[in-house]
DNA sequence: GTCTATATCGGGATAGAC
DNA sequence: GTCTATCCCGATATAGAC
């Protein structure tokens, strides 16, 4: 089964990602992970001992992929408008290609809250700094006193929700795969415009 | 077990809602549904024959609860701004009280796409009318040519996402239940303001 | 309609040979 | 490290008594 350069452990992890992302913890089968990796079921246990462990590895991978890029963009020294534009564009692209990840993460938080909390602590993820950073930058550049929490959640909502709701959108609007792709492309400009227009609105409000 | 006025079948359905909403299809156990309803496991099979059937009943209930109110508000003869305000306020309240429903529905669309599609067809849910209606109303009242699909998705995203992401918000921001409640209360004004400000922004754009 | 008992199967996990 | 065989529990579903 040495059909690629990757090690067996890596191939199992890749297989586990595929299966867990689509099926979630409860829906996933160790057998399916083994099949997907082209190995025996026992080997999965050999490398990861049990289902919880391999799930955790998959979750950690997905979560840090999202967070790393998010921090990278928001802590960069770009101006705020560029941050929004780049963030949305990057996230829509990344999530479209990995459309199972966001729902997988949200489900994980419900299914395995303790496991996840422990992981977050370990990763030392601190949003307070990020909030303060957003608040300050919006004040300095746009001369607005806004609540960074709500703005942050709004940005995430507009970028992430349409990807999560992919099957809903396809079913309800009757979109083909191509039409959905186009829809996502459009969002790369629609969403930043929407957010920046909203902020401009507050600006005008303040001037009245 | 005649401890309430409801019939056994109703009690089972209520129990099934609780369990399916929290655990999803794969995570739910027929035994747990029976326990929650205070009846024997076999009775659940007696009334619903199998797990798929009872899941479908639960899904249909959740979905039509959401859609009915949505249609009611958007097809009413309120002006558009009021629609937004009322919609967001109602949805944030409803979803906060039933915070498992949106994720449950989204998961259902991935887990049981065929079952769900058949149901949607049966319910005869037609969004084209709604889109045309939004487009027309925004044009007449706000004098804006906008894409109703994107606006519609934006409204849903801003209303629904924070509820889905509840455990994420609580874990990351370290919110207590009371703080989260307050956060949701705030969104009832923050979100309509955000949307209406964004539209105002387009308005200004057009005038330049 | 409601219960007990049981059939049947699938899935996580382990033992042990190679 | 990798495989086969197997254990054992838990979960859906059914049969049948009351």
Quick structural overview:
Two copies of one chain form a homodimer. With 208 residues, chain A is mainly α.
Verbal overview:
Two copies of one chain form a homodimer. By secondary structure, chain A is mainly alpha-helical. Chain A has a single domain (50-207), classed as Tetracycline Repressor, domain 2 (Orthogonal Bundle). Chain A contains eleven helices and no strands. Chain A has helices at 8-27, 30-37, 41-48, 51-74, 80-97, 101-111, 113-123, 127-142, 148-164, 166-173, 177-207. In chain A, helix 5 runs parallel beside helix 9 (148-164) and helix 9 (148-164) packs antiparallel against helix 11 (177-207). The radius of gyration of chain A is 20 Å and the shape is globular. In chain A, 34% of the residues are buried.
Descriptive tags:
mainly alpha, 208 residues, homodimer, 0% strand, DNA-binding
Topology, element by element:
The structure is a homodimer of 208-residue chains.
Chain A: H1 8-27, H2 30-37, H3 41-48, H4 51-74, H5 80-97, H6 101-111, H7 113-123, H8 127-142, H9 148-164, H10 166-173, H11 177-207
The first copy, chain A, binds a DNA duplex (18 and 18 nucleotides) through α3.
**What proportion of the residues of chain A form beta strands (DSSP E)?**
under 5%
Ends distance of chain A: 70 Å
Number of helices of chain A: 11
CATH fold-level name of chain A? Tetracycline Repressor, domain 2
CATH architecture assignment of chain A: Orthogonal Bundle
Greatest interface and its participating residue counts = A-B, 55 and 55 residues
